[in-house]
Amino acid sequence: MNSLSVFNTRPPKKSPKYRLPILIGILLLTAVGIFLAQPWINSVEPSAIKTSCDKIRQCLRVEQAWPPGMEYCPRVLVPGAARHRANGKWGYSVNFEECGADSIIPAKFDVAEKFAFNGLAKVSQGGKWGYVNLKGGEAIPLNYDEVGDFDHGMVPVKRNGKWGYSDAQGLITVPTHFDAVSGIWQDGLSAVLVQGKWGYVNPHGEMAIKPGFDRVTKFQDGLARVQIKRKWGIINTAGELVIQPSFDAIFQTSDPHLLLVARNQKYGYFDDKGKEIIPPHLIKPVRARYNSGGWQIVLNSAALSSASSAAAASYNVLLSAWHFLDTPNEKLRFDENGKAQLWRNGEWFHVSQAGKLINIK
Fold first, then answer.
1. Is residue 299 part of a domain?
2. Are the beta carbons of 209 and 189 closer than 8 angstroms?
3. Does 37 map to a domain?
4. Has residue 350 been placed in a domain?
5. What is the rounded distance in angstroms from the CA atom of residue 121 to the CA atom of residue 108?
6. I need a labelling partner for 130 at 20 to 30 A (CA). Which of 87, 136, 310, 337 fits?
7. Domain range for 127
């Protein structure tokens, strides 16, 4: 016996004449299985469709508020609700393909907007505005001169020339006493206009910040910009001035800790506590970010630290060179102690923490 015969232990190949009968047998068994299962498949599919249509029609038939366990109704109906027009009026219908078309609200409105995710649609009839629900009921009565859009569950409503807020159930939460409202709720406050001055109310209609500003913005990260006598400042949600209104413009940056201020076409930076980081002496804004080590000002893609001397030491290479801002007339750097230095028209200045320029002798 040679060495090759010892390792050749594979069984002999079967004759090809058995392959075709085996394949035919498998195909026949598969066909029989499908045939036997067909009645079961036919019985399942209509049942599933019928159940789905029953739920849809159950939602359409409900005349009262959605009962417990039927929270799915708005989610089921809103995607299929479509406006239809008849005799110059607008209404709504729902087409669920296999369930057919069902009219949910007759064509009777002068204006009809699309249903929102909350299951309500803004409509107008006879010059009055309100909201209807998927059952055709008036969630917010059609007796307002104007209505706005929902924000945080509240919608602005106007009656007899005055604005207030309603909730999704049609209850007036903020009385219609105001000349204008912002329509935006942030940090639990909305701006309102009273006799030409802006203030803020809470969702209960209570005046949280008394009107006294010429212009305002919405709150963001607990701060809002306000204008008094054409100058901008910053307030917190308690109505306290974080930054006095002394700037031509204030911009919120991508960093929630950093605010960009402008005065006389020069730019500077404050933090969100009202502390001045760089006084408004820069020709143009620079990018800045905040981390655990302190502020980092980014000029020409190079980072400079304004934190402690220890933190500034890691930027020694960068500190050794000037970094131009917009023109050669102004340059900015930080010295070895982390103090900002500004060069203007041939003179060197330290930038103090109070924002003053101190001439370097």
1. no
2. yes
3. no
4. no
5. 14
6. 87
7. 75-144
Angle at the Cα of 215 (from 183 to 277), degrees rounded to 5?
110
pLDDT along the chain (361 residues), means of 10: 36 54 71 55 38 67 53 71 88 70 80 89 96 87 96 96 95 96 96 97 95 96 95 96 95 80 86 84 62 53 40 30 45 61 76 66 66
pLDDT of residue 3: 36
Distance of CA 325 to the CA centre of its chain: 34
User: What confidence score (pLDDT) does residue 280 get?
Assistant: 82
Q: What is the pLDDT of residue 66?
A: 53
Into how many domains does the chain fold? 1
Q: Quick one: pLDDT at residue 338?
A: 53
DSSP conformational letter for 288: E
Q: Answer yes or no: is 130 within a domain.
A: yes
C-alpha atoms less than 13 angstroms from C-alpha of 1 in its C-beta half-sphere: 6
Other CB atoms closer than 10 Å to residue 230's CB: what's the count?
Answer: 9
Count of all residues that appear for the chain in the document: 361
CA torsion, points 209, 211, 215, 218, in degrees to nearest 10? 30
Q: How far is CA 143 from CA 175, 197, 203, in A?
A: 15, 28, 22
pTM, two decimals, is 0.64
Q: How far is CA 114 from the centre of its chain?
A: 20
Non-local (6+) Cβ contacts of 309 within 8 A are 336, 337, 338
